[in-house]
Amino acid sequence: MFLLDLLARKTRLPAAGEALPGRPMPITVPGTHAVSGRPLAGPYPEGIRTALFGLGCFWGAERAFWRRDGVFVTAVGYAGGATPNPTYEEVCSGMTGHNEVVLVAYDPAVVSFAELVRLFFESHDPTQGMRQGNDVGTQYRSGIYVGDAAERATAEAVRDAYQAALSEKGFGRITTEIVDRPAFYFAEDYHQQYLAKVPNGYCGLGGTGVACPVGTGVAAA
């Protein structure tokens, strides 16, 4: 019974009044990306845009994006919850409402937002609800956090194309949330570019093995 109660709590988003209080000061983050050496939190060069994705454990998710041509820098953090400046332990409790997310700063002249959305769908299983593989909880939900109406339209169009491909192969409905971009809080230093620092570390990504018919051709991780 205890395990069932714990599972139920970890897969239910807390109401705002239930969320942990957090803190006013943000977590200190390193100045540069461990792989590229570029500024993690900016300022970014003129013309660089940002996107925000949640696709399970952010360790493997971040690596999927920093390897993509046209991506200037990546960082991991928390978004979509009610607790200001949460810690990793607080997010893992299920009592902040936050998702583990990747901030992607990219050059739209090299890689489009649509291509990043396709990479997002091709790098995880977007049908699992509040989990990704063995990782269970609200922090592992699939999400695209859009900055404007154009990004929303693009994300929804790619989702619908990917759903058609999944349905043809007998997979379930996509559970990805596509919502307006919330506040982003940087995660702790040791989470940033984790798989560059620990090459044999836990990745956590799994895919359906089904590529979007209008995708980039990137296989699921």
TrEMBL record:
Species per Swiss-Prot/TrEMBL record: Prosthecomicrobium pneumaticum
Q: Which residues form the Peptide methionine sulphoxide reductase MsrA domain?
A: 50-203
PANTHER family assigned to the protein according to its UniProt record, in alphabetical order: MITOCHONDRIAL PEPTIDE METHIONINE SULFOXIDE REDUCTASE
Q: Name one GO biological process term.
A: cellular response to oxidative stress
Q: Does the keyword Protease apply?
A: no
- Which GO molecular function entries does the Swiss-Prot or TrEMBL record give? peptide-methionine (S)-S-oxide reductase activity
Q: So where does this one cross the membrane?
A: none
Q: What is its EC number?
A: 1.8.4.11
What the record says about family reads: Belongs to the MsrA Met sulfoxide reductase family.
What this protein is reported to do is described as: Has an important function as a repair enzyme for proteins that have been inactivated by oxidation. Catalyzes the reversible oxidation-reduction of methionine sulfoxide in proteins to methionine.
- What reaction does this enzyme carry out catalytically? [thioredoxin]-disulfide + L-methionine + H2O = L-methionine (S)-S-oxide + [thioredoxin]-dithiol; L-methionyl-[protein] + [thioredoxin]-disulfide + H2O = L-methionyl-(S)-S-oxide-[protein] + [thioredoxin]-dithiol
Residues forming the catalytic site = C57
Per the record's keyword annotation, is ATP-binding included, yes or no? no
The GO cellular component terms are: cytoplasm
Q: What is the designated name of this protein?
A: Peptide methionine sulfoxide reductase MsrA
* InterPro entries in the cross-refs: Met_Sox_Rdtase_MsrA_dom (IPR002569), Met_Sox_Rdtase_MsrA_sf (IPR036509), MsrA_MetSO_reductase (IPR050162)
Q: Which UniProt keywords apply?
A: Oxidoreductase
Organism superkingdom: Bacteria
